[in-house]
Amino acid sequence: MAQHSPHREEAGLRPLEAKVIIVTGALGGIGGAAARELVAAGVHVVATDITPAGDEALAQWGADASFFRADLTQEDQVAALVAHTLERHGRLDGAFNNAGIEQHGKPLTQLDAAEWDRVLHINLGSMFFCLKHQIPAMASGGSIVLTSSILGQVAVPNAAEYIASKHAVIGLMRAAAIEGGPLGIRVNAVLPGAVDTPLLRRQFDDPALLPMMEAVRKAHPLGRFALPEEIAKAVKWLLSGESSFTTGATISIDGGFTAT
What we know:
The protein is of the alpha/beta class. Helices cover 44% and strands 13% of the residues. α2 packs across α9, α4 (75-89) runs parallel beside α5 (113-137) and α5 (113-137) packs parallel to α6.
């Protein structure tokens, strides 16, 4: 009979409402929706973002959420976030590593080194630091979800730095899934299509971008943008025991964009 790791058994049996989960980029559209979804399910959420306004937002979420401000491009601050979580809750069961920024909207031949480095450092470097410090903290196993993008699978013009970072996130996720498996730690990625967030809405304020945005909307066979809550529900599933045999997977939530 196959032997089962105690890590796997404990991680698989612990109900979602008893878990301690870090959510990064928690004051953004997708991160905020995920944090609220998890809190509503009874999860103890440690939310983090670079902005200092987190305590005000969390006051509306409930007693099971706390905020820790951190710049995730700084490894010492990531280490402090994980240490804070362990000190406050005594364990770490999961993480939704979601923080990131958009592209500069330039052809790659016009990108300067600072613009390239900034996107790669935030979108990819922060993921590395989070995984590096979260995995050792998950003594009883756990689940980690990374936010990539449909542009982690396909490409469009004028987004080379963003596309490179999101493709790399998928590679990093797969490497972490291979290393985390024997520890009972699952690692997966969600790949959203265009999501109706404040960031997307700001682009509608630019008349020059309206034709492009309409083309992007029509490129989704469902004919609309995703709601942040639709991404959040998939994240919750991946963080729960209901996805206990899912690891190293990319979950496209793109309204059919990559099916065309």
